[in-house]
Every structure is written in structure tokens, then in C-alpha cells.
Amino acid sequence: QVQLVESGGGLVHTGGSLRLSCAASQRTSGNYAMAWFRQAPGVGREFVAADTWNTGQTLYADSVKDRFTISRDDAKNTVYLQMNSLKPEDTAVYFCAGGHFISRTYSFYNYWGQGTQVTVSS
Q1: pLDDT (tens digit per residue) in 104-122
Q2: DSSP assignment letter at 89
Q3: What whole-number distance in Å separates Cα of residue 23 and Cα of residue 6?
Q4: Which residue in 94, 91, 86 sits closest to 112, CA to CA?
């Protein structure tokens, strides 16, 4: 079982920045995708960003594409989410996920981290 561990969450003011990290215990051969989702109270799980290890394809939600950047460090089996110009509506628990296909839909991902809390105050 692949294990994912998120870190880097915290409390920031509107306009601040955070960088989230997701460390994977292992990476499968061939196609593999990593993604970030978030979930706020009273709101369903929302896609944020994703990329593929082998092709570099990326996907972003429209709400974050000009502010967030997904990247990776292959040597460390780690994916990052750089979040700039944070807004109160970005407040949520952020989860990283892994799977064999890149998608905006959470059901395509097989492995999930525990989540890290991001809180943006106004």
C-alpha cells in the first residue's frame, strides 16, 4: 500500500502564501499521477491541481490556476503545492492523492493522505 503524508498547512492572512508537501512511500512504474484536493465544511471534495510523473501534464481548477503551482521532486518522491495570494475561500483541509490516471475526479485516485489544514483569515 502506498502511503502519502502531507505537511505544510497552517494559518495565514489573506494574500499570504504556503507551500504544501506530499511525500510518497513509493512510486509505481509507468503512468502515475499525483493530485491535490480540498474539502471545506459544508462543501464537497474539490479538485485543486494534478500532474503526471512521466509526462509532466498538469491540471488546475479555474479558481486556483493563476495562484497555485504544482511541482515535484522525483528523487524525494514528493509533490508540492505552492499557494500564493491566498483567500479566505481557500480555507479547507488539503489532501494529496495518487493514481494511475490524471483526472479532476477523486474516484480515479487510489491512495490518499491524511490531510493538512489550511486556514486563511480575512
Answers
A1: 999 999 999 999 999 999 9
A2: G
A3: 7
A4: 94
